[in-house]
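An example makes the point: we print one protein in full, the chain in one-letter code, the fold tokenised, without further comment:
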Amino acid sequence: MLSVIVCSRQSSWWGLHEDHVARWVGAQHEYVRINNSDGRYNLCSAYNEGVDKSSGDILVFVHEDVSFVGKGWGQKLIDLFADETIGLVGVCGTQKLLADSYDWSKANVPYVKGQIYFPQAWYAAQPEWVGKIVPTENGFIHIKYSQEEGNADVVAVDGLFMAIRASLFDKIAFDEETFNDFHFYDLDISMQINPLARLVVTKDIEVVHYSIPRYVNKTVDMYGKALLNKWADKLPIMVDEKHVTDNMGVTSVLAEGLTFEEFMAKGADNE
């Protein structure tokens, strides 16, 4: 069974997100909401409580502003975890983490893998994208970090969606002391899993992240440096060369857009 664990701060989205997951998952699951409307948790402490409350053998940690594209993503996860060597599945990530940068995407081509949809507004203030996309009202940008289909072995995944084998939590835990905010929990848990099991990015599960830009500020920089310090003796880290393929670069295309509430309410009947 899947346990879908969500740290929720937007009470107006609670029913929408839970219903959306139920309609699209296509597998037996439970929805474990950690109520953080009063800000009592950091993300690591919320996820650790979610682990304690869960009964599934696959734990899916997903942001409450993430929606799914297409039915049956839960069964796809179950099929992936039938391979007992796999411990973590994400939708985007990297085959290489650098020793001098806490941004996983800085590994660049050919190491970044996966795909994601963002609202076009996400990039409105990103200087590197000015002139590279044509603005459209309420559009999506489909970012393909790699062009090859299927799955890719990686060393770290982005935390917007992480599915982890529950049994690993006998040996790992989200580090709520070092990362007592909402940053770099994903790269840290990835580093914990690396010596224990394979990490995989799949392109068979597609998600939309209704997010705003995360600018590098003093807080992000502080936690990023904490990550680099914690794992200084393990970085840089890279998958075996046999798993590195030429992904032909990062591409982006525009797609039809909906608001978060519209997409959640649309349901799985309109694939």
The radius of gyration is 18 Å.
